[in-house]
Amino acid sequence: MEFNITSTDITYVIFAIVAVIVAFLIIKKVAGCLIKAVVFAILVAILGYIYYNFSMVEESEDGTEIEMTE
Question: Which residues 6+ apart lie within 8 Å of 60 measured at CB?
């Protein structure tokens, strides 16, 4: 069994390794950004839910809570 390794073969291998590393780094950055965006969206949804539910309740003069109607 004989292997012929030329400089073009080595160039392709080096290019493929560099491409895999660059793709991994780009995916890592994008995934990190997406995770932050999802966490931010969840926090905004939770805060919106809390604001909506608690803005509709008002305390009366005798200390009891009454629900506001629009």
Answer: 66
